[in-house]
Amino acid sequence: MRGLKGMPFEEAWRSAGVPDVERVLRKTLRKTDPDAADFLVLLSPAASICLEAMEEAAAERRRAAFGASVALFSPLYLSDACVNVCLYCGFRADNRFPRKTLSEDEIAAEADAIRASGIRRVLAVTGDSPRASGVGYLKRAAGLLARRFDSVAVEVQALDVGDYAELAASGVDGVTVHQEVYDEPTYRSVHAKGPKRRYRYRLEAPERACTAGMRRVTVGALLGLADWRKEIFFAGMHARYLRDRFPGVRVGVAFPRVCPHPGGWKAPCPVGERELVQAMLAVRLFLPDAVIVLSTRERAELRDRMVRSAATDLSAGSSTEVGGYAGERVGRVPQFEIVDRRRVEEIRAALIAAGMDPI
């Protein structure tokens, strides 16, 4: 992969120095959006020396675009049935465990338990199984959830425009599609079997969701699968493309890192917290009006810190297993391990104490 004007990424990052980072930060203080070359500078090793200055500039941009608001949501896992073999996922088809798909009564019970915690936004999550969680099932689930929540988003298999339009008509207003990894050879190696191997079909899914009338669309790379700087660069450029083409859509970027899961697969390119912080700050400076999502994969202290400068949306009180809120949890398999295990009210209290406004 090559950067702008034929320049290899490594050369662009190696040639960037602290004065280049300072120049880009001065540009953001003038309320001028960085261009793609500036984005490369913000992701460079030189920028890692300037994190404090980047954090201050990012905090100013976040306040200007979002004020003190922080949107809280909970994931609701509807089904762990999946036909794909994605090496990094606990739900991969070759992991042997009893699969579960919630009935309509169980969906209602899970939703009621989440709502009772104070959450008003929900992200419905499934594996990729046309038989267990096809579009018809998703539409019925969306109808149940839309009656209980102010906002319903889905993180499901990549769909056609017509399918997304049907979900929108059923009450879904947001779609999350993690590309997982933008480097195509790596994408094919970690997606061993199943329809998710179709790289371009997944890459273009967020655009199809926008075309179908979704109000919110979130993209992102699963950090740890490939070089994080390249992955964040392409995720940021992907988000900017969607923002520019669909100005009425609220575009977001999520920052999941590979977490331990049943199966024990190890990330080939682990990403530390310092690198994650730099990635989030760079995206905030590059895309000042973008939603930035940070999940309970991360430590409470890091999440509390990053809402001041970058993150706008936090998952809260999360369960990553099917039936994890109201159902019988014995023997259930989570998609990944949660790190921030605080209850919703604890997260809300911490945000208020920090001067933020959780909604």
UniProtKB/TrEMBL annotation:
GO biological process, one term: thiamine biosynthetic process
Gene3D superfamilies noted in UniProt: Aldolase class I
InterPro entries: Aldolase_TIM, BATS_dom, rSAM, rSAM_sf, ThiH, ThiH/NoCL/HydG-like
Keywords of this entry: 4Fe-4S, Iron, Iron-sulfur, Metal-binding, S-adenosyl-L-methionine
Species per Swiss-Prot/TrEMBL record: Candidatus Reconcilbacillus cellulovorans
Cofactor(s) the protein needs: [4Fe-4S] cluster
Residues covered by the Biotin and thiamin synthesis-associated domain: 254-358
UniProt protein name: Thiamine biosynthesis protein ThiH
One Pfam family recorded for the sequence: BATS
A GO MF label: 4 iron, 4 sulfur cluster binding
